[in-house]
């Protein structure tokens, strides 16, 4: 399995894409798999690739071949703070539809003063306490412009409040496939608890394949949609309702990935079984990328029903809101 060692950046790459390598002609053994993944370099001080290889070896922990607890730990981390949702967050309602959730503290401390933009509704027969936008903001374009000004103002006042602003917009929709009510700065999306839907999966996949690994269109357009994983992550004011759409792509055995945008430091080719061990035994991968690889392991038979907790783990990969 090939893993990408990214340069430290303030924002995480959203797409995770397992690739399948065909064995090079004349070679033996099973195909290797490549996972288009990222991990947090800053959290791995002193943990080298030699350590990764050592932790991945079957004889590193010979008695844990059927132990899924390490996988469950990664899922639990991705779904942290879910018990706080009802008590700490209030719905963001647009045109009688819930499109997100805002932390009470974030609204009181930062949004409440923008009374010409945000309206606090103390009680509603349908939604209870909620936040909505001023009724004068009647079009998606107006909402996008005005909310964008608020985000820019907050970012200028407190740089660390909403880090990583990149002028990239996410459509704000009540459900997958619905038309957007407005668009929101990507870095601010977790603070409004919106679903990161709206972009074209295929178009973004092709773009990221080229930028991150130099995979040409002639190959990337062969990627097959194979499902999705989801999770709910609450961290302070941030509420992430992420759905990661998964694709498999089989690559020629002689293909050599080359980063094009300067965001990836290196690539490593590691057998699938070994990558599974890295996930179970270490925190080397970003947790949400681990979920994508787990899904791959299920679909390709590396996690079997003989493992205790098989069905629970399978179900847990889709713990989030997929509406």
Automatic annotation (TrEMBL):
CDD domains registered for this protein in UniProt: NUDIX_Tnr3_like
PROSITE patterns registered for this protein in UniProt: NUDIX (PS51462)
Occurrences of domain Nudix hydrolase (ranges): 110-295
InterPro entries: DUF4743, NUDIX_hydrolase-like_dom_sf, NUDIX_hydrolase_dom
GO molecular function terms noted in the UniProt entry: 8-oxo-dGDP phosphatase activity
PANTHER family tied to this protein: THIAMIN PYROPHOSPHOKINASE, THIAMIN PYROPHOSPHOKINASE 1
Protein name, as recorded: Nudix hydrolase domain-containing protein
Organism, as annotated: Populus deltoides (Eastern poplar)
Origin organism lineage: Eukaryota, Viridiplantae, Streptophyta, Embryophyta, Tracheophyta
